Sequence to fold (250 residues):
Amino acid sequence: MNEDKKKVEVKENNRKFDKKRPRNNNRPNKPKSDLEDKVIEIKRVTKVVKGGRQFRFAATVVVGNRKGMVGLGTGKAKEMPDAVKKATQAASKNLIKVNLIDALAKYAGLFGMIYGQLLDVESESSDNKSKELLFKIHDNKTSGLFKYACIAAMYLGGATNLEYFESLGSKLGIIFQHQDDLFDIIKSEEETGKSNSDLRNDKLTALSYMSVDELKEYIDYLFKDIYDYLSCANFDTKYIIEIIDRMKNR
Fold:
């Protein structure tokens, strides 16, 4: 009786295994990755173990999506393809957003320093010597450098208030350029490092529409404005103020 019962149970179990599971056609497809990978280095490494040496391959791979996301990974294996596969998987898990490159393209590109330089060149042969045009040149050209410096520091330091640091960079650039226009007249070539004066070459500068004394007063106003701007900051501004103090006394 027991033997017959066991035979029945075995047959039922076999039937279960014989049944094919229905395919789930409604299962969502795994999204295709847009990451591209590039092998940077493959080298053979040796590990000394008890009884001899073990030879393996070490691979370094970088991945990216051409949209600012990049990752770097390494992997080791006995076979080269396996080492590359491990490195690629590691790189895909360590993706970071490269904001610095995006910021550099913004502040140095066609709508940044390049645009400011274009306006500067065009102003040399133009009758337009207005204050508005000069500000546009300074804000895109000189301030572009300062904006990027501030934004780069912000990204590296983990800050998030982008607009505040962009405005800070703009203010620093405007101050620096107005000082440069003033020094172009009141300082010697040895002090400025310039062989020719911008104003004498009929280039648009702050002295194209204001006197030396007026420019000095305006620079003092700009410094007061930026000190007031920093006084409202919710972070430690000691280092930034030290830089501004040096600018003021240069």
The CA atoms of residues 62 and 111 lie 30 Å apart.
